[in-house]
Amino acid sequence: MLDTRYRVEIPGGINLDAQVVGPIPRFFAFAIDLCIRGVIIFVLSLMSIPFGTFGVGGGFFLILLFAIEWLYPVLFEVFWRGQTPGKKALGISVINDDLTPVSLGTSLVRNLLRTVDFLPLFYLAGLVTMLSNRHFQRLGDLAAGTLVISVRESARAAPVPDIEPLAPSTPLLRTEQTSIIDFLQRSPQLSGPRQQELADILEGVTHQKGDDGVRQLHRIGAWFLGLR
Amino acid sequence: MKQHSFEELHQSTWRQIEDSLEKPAQGDNSRILAQNYLLLCQHLAIAKERLYDAALVERLNNLVLALYRELYRYRAETRLNFYAFFKRDFPLAIYRHRYFVLLSFLVFVLPGLIAGAWTFFDEAAVYSILDAPQVRQVERMYDPEARKLGREREADTDIYMFGFYIKNNISVAFRCFAGGMVLGIGTLLVLFFNGMFIGSIAGHLTRLDYVDTFYPFVVGHGSFELTAIVFSGAAGLRLGYALINPGQFTRLDSLRQAGRDVVPLLYGIFLMLVIAAFLEAFWSSSTLLSIEVKYAVGALLWVLVLLYSFSGRRYGSR
């Protein structure tokens, strides 16, 4: 089953979930970073010319080139909450596989091994590795023990509209109650016919069909939520 | 308690914590952070246990995750300990990887010696290893008539060469390490070919009797540079070996363990190569210093580097 949920038991005594992200957002994040690096290198090369291409200017340019090639991702990931600018734009972040933030060592390993992920060209090895394990880890991630997860703000549940709650005629299990609450909260994202289709399944509970059934189910959902 | 009442009861606390995460307070806020973290863990556990709906659980989950990450954020001031690194961590890492260091040393040095002997005795041999423009360039760099040693003709300052050495040498070392991921084959190739190139150049220049320019130039920075390349090979081989023979671990766990273990080596390689680049650009290239001084300092540096490299033995019981 394709499931992007990654679960870890943390010292707080609970299971914490994170959503790992696949190759597509990571590709875009990388592309953005590549552009940023390109622009920096271009500006630096212009700035270094007056100081001598093979002199002091050229020397500093080479050092900065080295830093941008190898250290750019490391420094951003360690000191900027696991995000390079590209990753920040895409709302993704690098994290250790125990969901603690990446440290200097792990980030260094995962980024030095980029060289191998790039092989034979255009990150083919990285892509193949990413697609052949559960958590979309490329080779560098596997060696360093890191993941890339989504840190997008979760969509806040829309405030429940004013509905008059209604006690259901039949007692329901907690899991059934939760499904009805979820139905109520997700209904803004569902089309009318789809809502009716779903509500019709529960005709035995609501004793109504079609639009009336949907309304009835919303009222029951409001009751289970604890609205009075 | 119904979900609605639960949310009403804690809504303001959650908002407050969310805001504080966006704008972290100055100074030490670890106590508040820890309190919030424990509180939110409890709320999340309650929400899950009582089967509150998915949106609320997700919100609390993300909040706990954010607090957790903030709590365990990388703090350079507590993690980076230079004294402990130089005194213990780096030598210990070398010691624990001693068999990989040995293998890396052999794969680097043996082809070098063979290629060196071959080019020394056979005039044409160097052209089987390097192409003609490369040979001419090397000859020009160590020509006894040269104003500055070991340098491209265009380069007109030491700082340029410093940048050049930083970029090239450290990139080679990093690639040498990364090649270990391909079952160690990449690392072996980098070591083998670099050893062979260096050996053939040395043999060829010795045959040309450029001895007084070549050896005083390389002896100083060579101590740090060649040793660092051997260490980067050891780090790469460790990765490769972890994949080939994971022992009682799964291949994945074994690789991860290796990835953690080689980190001090990587730091050390980086620092050693920065030192090497500095020496190579500002010390080795100087024509003002006499050959005797260069040999003396070079020998001293070699002794120090080797003594340091073996100093991890005192932690031998680990």
How would you portray this structure in words?
The complex is a heterodimer of chains A (228) and B (318). Chain A has eleven helices and four strands. Chain A is mainly α. Chain A has two domains: 146 residues, no CATH class; 52 residues, no CATH class. In chain A, the strands form two sheets. A two-stranded antiparallel sheet of chain A has the order 1-2. The mean pLDDT of chain A is 85. Chain B is elongated, with a radius of gyration of 28 Å. Chain B folds into two domains: 71 residues; 234 residues, no CATH class. Helices cover 77% and strands 0% of the residues of chain B. Chain B has 318 residues and is mainly α. In chain B, helix 5 packs across helix 13 and helix 11 packs parallel to helix 14.
Explain the layout of strands and helices:
The complex is a heterodimer of chains A (228) and B (318).
Chain A: E1 5-10, E2 14-19, H1 23-48, H2 56-79, H3 85-90, E3 92-96, H4 104-112, H5 114-118, H6 124-131, H7 139-144, E4 146-150, H8 174-186, H9 192-201, H10 203-206, H11 210-225
Antiparallel strand pairs in A: 1-2, 3-4
Chain B: H1 3-22, H2 30-49, H3 54-71, H4 76-79, H5 82-96, H6 98-121, H7 126-129, H8 132-141, H9 158-178, H10 185-207, H11 211-244, H12 251-261, H13 263-284, H14 291-309
Helix pairs in contact in B: 1-3, 2-3, 5-13, 6-10, 6-11, 9-10, 9-11, 9-13, 10-11, 11-12, 11-13, 11-14
Overview in brief:
The complex is a heterodimer of chains A (228) and B (318). With 228 residues, chain A is mainly alpha-helical.
